[in-house]
Amino acid sequence: xxxxxxxxxxxxxxxxSSPSGAGKTTISRMLLAFDDNLHISVSATTxxxxxxxxxxxxxxxxxxxxxxxxxxxDEFLEHATVxxxxxxxxxxxxxxxxxxxxxxxxxxxxQGTQQLYGRVHDDLVRVFILPxxxxxxxxxxxLRATDSEEVIKNRMARASDEMGHYNEYxxxxxxxxxxxxxxxxxxxxxxxxxxxNRRNGLYDFxxxxxxxxxxx
Length: 216
Known about the structure:
The strands form three sheets. The chain has a five-stranded parallel β-sheet, with helices on both faces. The protein has helices spanning 24-34, 64-72, 91-99, 110-120, 134-143, 149-163, 178-193, 202-209, and strands spanning 8-9, 13-17, 38-40, 44-45, 60-61, 76-82, 85-90, 103-107, 124-130, 171-174, 199-200. α1 (24-34) crosses α7 (178-193). By secondary structure, the chain is α/β, with parallel strands linked by helices. The protein contains eight helices and eleven strands.
């Protein structure tokens, strides 16, 4: 988007959610590869880093004490504890990117999205990714060849519950073809970037176009 220099845009917080196997992670990676102005949100966690993970890139690896301190100081946009490890989205890095006119991508479940919406709903754009059918979703899970039969059944059962939250989202994308799905999310992001409430300086720009100058 090539706005005149006196029109500055505030950033968009783009959330992608989906049941496991619907393609959310693949779509996220492709969006980030195509768009230099879109940045992934990096979460903080108390779990130890896995081999190959880099602090500040994959996660911010912090102690439990530091995590509790950040919660007490209201430094997270959302946070949760899963299987004894805590995860949260630090507010500071997100705010910095938004103020600079950059957009931030969140790959998270419906529960995290609810927390986020409760805090920053004006800047949030929520997209839910659906599979084209139950059969296709199960086929995609099996193609991974990493999960046992029991795990696949559990994921399918969980998917039914997760898809029940689709109505809490602003946009729904059915991922029949990943290229088409990425194009649809890009179109959503473009439209949200062009909203007048995100384009600071637009009022003065239009006044100048109308030849009103400093007149009332």
